[in-house]
Amino acid sequence: MIEWISAQPVLFWLCLGGLLLIAEMLGTAGYLLWSGMAALCVSLIAWLLPIGWPLQGILFAILTVISAILWRIWLKRKKLSKEAENLNQRSHQLIGTKAILLSDTENGFSRIKLADGSWRVYSDTPLKAGDKVQVIAIDGITLTVVPAI
């Protein structure tokens, strides 16, 4: 068996890469993905160039580390989209929404209608019924609004 593996390095790296990618699908959150990709790259390089086992092992280690570092840098630069940030906070998706006040503000509070519901709103400035407002923040079930421009 060892003789067969040493005679077929391309198949060894293909199998190792495939096994690492299969293990990644079981839920390792990206840790084995880059090792599997590095093994597949080493398989391709070993198929194209006649390099020995020591150089293949070094190449595998270097490719794994480089790809993991690049992946980490990419993740740090990537920003979550606004939809992803508010995925489980539906009320936060209302920020930026414009609506019309249903009644004059009393002590800063009033109501607006959004979709099929009525929402309690708060404004620092006195507003009249029919004024167009924009939601700027949410505190519990109260929307903070400002006059819309």
From TrEMBL:
<keyword id="KW-0378">Hydrolase</keyword>
<dbReference type="InterPro" id="IPR052165">
    <property type="entry name" value="Membrane_assoc_protease"/>
</dbReference>
<protein>
    <submittedName>
        <fullName>Putative membrane protease activity regulator</fullName>
    </submittedName>
</protein>
<dbReference type="Pfam" id="PF01957">
    <property type="entry name" value="NfeD"/>
</dbReference>
<dbReference type="GO" id="GO:0008233">
    <property type="term" value="F:peptidase activity"/>
</dbReference>
<feature type="domain" description="NfeD-like C-terminal">
    <location>
        <begin position="92"/>
        <end position="147"/>
    </location>
</feature>
<feature type="transmembrane region" description="Helical">
    <location>
        <begin position="6"/>
        <end position="23"/>
    </location>
</feature>
<dbReference type="GO" id="GO:0005886">
    <property type="term" value="C:plasma membrane"/>
</dbReference>
<keyword id="KW-0472">Membrane</keyword>
<feature type="transmembrane region" description="Helical">
    <location>
        <begin position="30"/>
        <end position="49"/>
    </location>
</feature>
<dbReference type="InterPro" id="IPR002810">
    <property type="entry name" value="NfeD-like_C"/>
</dbReference>
<dbReference type="GO" id="GO:0006508">
    <property type="term" value="P:proteolysis"/>
</dbReference>
<keyword id="KW-0645">Protease</keyword>
<dbReference type="InterPro" id="IPR012340">
    <property type="entry name" value="NA-bd_OB-fold"/>
</dbReference>
<keyword id="KW-1133">Transmembrane helix</keyword>
<keyword id="KW-0812">Transmembrane</keyword>
<feature type="transmembrane region" description="Helical">
    <location>
        <begin position="55"/>
        <end position="75"/>
    </location>
</feature>
